[in-house]
Amino acid sequence: MFSTPRDPRTWLVGLPCRSDDSRIVWLYYVVGEALDSAGALCAAVQRANSASERDVRGQAPVDPDRAKVRRIRRHILGDFALEA
Are 14 and 30 in contact (CB under 8 A)? Predict the structure, then answer.
């Protein structure tokens, strides 16, 4: 892996919510505007709570306390990897 100060920080954020039949469904958001994992989580929750997103999932709330946040890194050869 490589990292330079100019590398954009890109995050994959998973947010769980309950479907109409009480199953847990994971919603995933790619966040590019955050400097750290807390900022990425905040941006993903804001997206998930937008009117259009809530309408699509029938107003079901997301659970940010159980979120999964991973940084997306690009290998020098162009491959992508998720960091813990």
Answer: no
Return all residues near 69 (Cβ < 8 A) that are at least 6 apart.
Answer: 11, 12, 13, 14, 37, 40, 41
DSSP helix, strand, coil percent of the chain (3-state; round to 5): 25, 35, 40
Q: Is 77 helix (H, G, I), strand (E, B) or coil?
A: coil
| Residue pLDDT, tens place only, 23-40 | 999 999 999 989 999 999
| Cα–Cα distance, 14 to 33 (Å, whole number) | 16
pTM of the predicted structure, to 2 decimals: 0.84
